[in-house]
Automatic annotation (TrEMBL):
All copies of domain HTH araC/xylS-type, residue ranges: 409-507
GN (gene name): cheY_2
Originating species: Lederbergia lenta (Bacillus lentus)
Location in or out of the cell: Cytoplasm
Protein name: AraC family transcriptional regulator
SUPFAM superfamilies recorded: CheY-like, Homeodomain-like
Gene3D superfamilies: 3.40.50.2300, Homeodomain-like (1.10.10.60)
GO BP: any one term: phosphorelay signal transduction system
GO molecular function: DNA-binding transcription factor activity; sequence-specific DNA binding
Keywords assigned by UniProt, alphabetized: Cytoplasm, DNA-binding, Phosphoprotein, Transcription, Transcription regulation, Two-component regulatory system
SMART domains for this protein: HTH_ARAC (SM00342), REC (SM00448)
């Protein structure tokens, strides 16, 4: 989304321009400033792509505001707003790099044509910069690493707001308001197909592919305008399944979660996609969560989907005592409601299955939960359920007991030493023979930050040290600390420290002198 700032001391001018632009460019995010000084302050946070700037204003002239804005962000484009008598000022402004000007009063068609012309220039320059960057193989590798890490953090943790906007822009995926998750389940020993699947998905586009966890690949899919949700999901599912044309499809399955309207809610869609893979024996090798059969009976006071979502989080957080207590209470609830023993057993088994899948994605190997004997009454069901859950709990404890106490410190040190390299959460997981999800969990629990935040802090700390070396250009520093895009580095640095790399370096030199 492009950002546009209107700067004029006349409110009626600002409102008129905003009305014209909003009607003709609905994709623009538009803000207003009543003078140059206010505009400078707003530009720090708003970071506009285009500014419509009046020349004569109180407190600070438009020319001075342009000069100062240009120093901080040379990529901003400017259109001057001027009266006919001020034309000489407009010529001076163009010398400062202003792309065009509008005479007061301007017709709506003139405003639209001028803004459209400059937006086209912005798009062309942006495209040119991206094409130059993508010529570097290292950038493509970096984007792949960013993509898998972002998927992992969004589905299993949280990406801090400092990074999400910039990461989304860097990945260059057409962002739409609606998105959903697909979970691909591969047959045993089919991990080698991961690269081929990723290549298939890239050709279709609008999708972020996560790392391979065991046999599972999660994907965040952005809705395509002009195509129905089902049509888009089925097309993508069939394309992925075509990889198996020369392989046995017996172990293949794709679960498709419901649509959500923000990345904050994407975990719900992921959980839904995972639940749909419970029965992979179906002849059609993909399934929508919305098509999951509802239970024959509706039970007052019971919402399976809310409980499933809660169960996911409890397993990941290791809240086993609470899980076991709630499972026993749930069995008692069903018994009191008059639910049959067979239906109760089926519902409890579904929750146990969720527990085993979540454990598997965390790196804990467990068998598919099944009752070893025929259940004859509710008391026996409680006993056997408690036994199965304690087995899972024990597997969870044994897995984490094998991990040395200093594991997080060793991982932390590894990131500090290798932050300037092409480093990823998935790569770290392979090195330390752990699940990426578990490493993400360790960071949050023991360090109080997520992996991406910690990696960013390491890189920017190294960048600040390198800024003390006058011979090093900011572009060189960008690549030396592990980034492949100077613009992305600049944005992250400014959000973290409140000053651009240029401003920060200038302050260092001033302090040193």
């Amino acid at each position: 989304m492009k950002r546009l700032l209107i700067v004029d001391d006349e409110q009626i001018v600002r409102e008129g321009l905003k009305a014209i632009l909003s009607n003709n460019f609905p994709e623009l995010e538009i803000k207003e400033a009543k003078n140059g000084k206010v505009a400078l302050e707003m530009a720090e946070l708003f970071m506009p792509d285009l500014v419509l700037m009046d020349i004569k204003m109180p407190k600070m002239s438009g020319l001075e505001a342009i000069r100062l804005m240009n120093e901080k962000n040379p990529h901003i484009k400017f259109i001057m707003i001027t009266a006919y008598a001020e034309f000489e000022y407009a010529k001076s402004a163009i010398m400062l790099g202003v792309k065009d000007y509008l005479l007061k009063p301007s017709k709506a068609t003139e405003v639209v044509q001028t803004v459209s012309r400059v937006i086209s220039q912005i798009n062309e320059e942006k495209l040119s910069r991206k094409e130059n960057l993508f010529q570097q193989n290292t950038l493509q590798k970096a984007l792949t690493i960013v993509e898998t890490d972002v998927v992992t953090q969004l589905l299993f943790d949280h990406v801090h707001e400092i990074h999400l906007d910039e990461l989304v822009e860097l990945l260059d995926t057409p962002m739409t308001s609606e998105k959903f998750v697909m979970s691909i389940l591969l047959p045993q020993d089919s991990e080698s197909l991961y690269a081929e699947i990723k290549q298939k998905v890239r050709k279709i586009g609008s999708t972020w592919v996560g790392a391979l966890y065991g046999r599972q690949i999660p994907m965040i899919v952005f809705r395509q305008p002009g195509q129905s949700f089902r049509s888009q999901a089925i097309t993508l599912a069939r394309s992925i399944l075509s990889v198996s044309s020369t392989h046995d499809r017996a172990g293949w399955f794709i679960g498709i979660g419901n649509i959500c309207d923000s990345l904050d809610k994407i975990r719900q869609s992921y959980q839904e996609s995972l639940i749909t893979t419970k029965d992979i024996s179906l002849p059609v090798k993909y399934r929508f969560y919305a098509d999951m059969p509802l239970a024959d009976t509706k039970i007052a006071g019971y919402n399976s989907r809310v409980l499933e979502s809660k169960f996911f989080d409890q397993i990941r957080n290791g809240q086993w005592r609470e899980i076991i207590i709630e499972a026993a209470e749930l069995i008692g609830f069903f018994e009191n409601k008059g639910v049959s023993l067979i239906e109760t057993q089926q519902r409890i088994l579904e929750l146990l299955w969720i527990a085993s899948r979540v454990l598997n994605e965390m790196g804990v190997e467990t068998d598919t939960p099944l009752y070893s004997i025929q259940i004859k009454d509710f008391r026996q069901l409680r006993t056997e359920t408690n036994h199965l859950m304690n087995q899972m709990w024990q597997s969870y404890i044994e897995y984490y007991n094998e991990i040395e106490d200093d594991t997080i410190q060793r991982i932390k040190q590894y990131i500090v030493e290798h932050s300037h390299e092409e480093i990823s959460l998935d790569g770290i997981a392979h090195k330390f023979e752990l699940s990426p999800i578990y490493i993400s969990k360790l960071f949050k629990e023991q360090l109080g930050v997520n992996y991406i935040t910690f990696l960013t802090e390491c890189r920017l700390k190294r960048a600040r040290k390198l800024m003390m070396i006058p011979e090093k250009s900011l572009k060189e520093i960008t690549f030396d600390v592990g980034y492949q895009d100077p613009n992305y580095f600049s944005k992250v640095f400014k959000k973290m420290y409140g000053a651009s790399p240029t401003e920060y370096r200038r302050s260092l030199i001033g302090t040193k002198g």
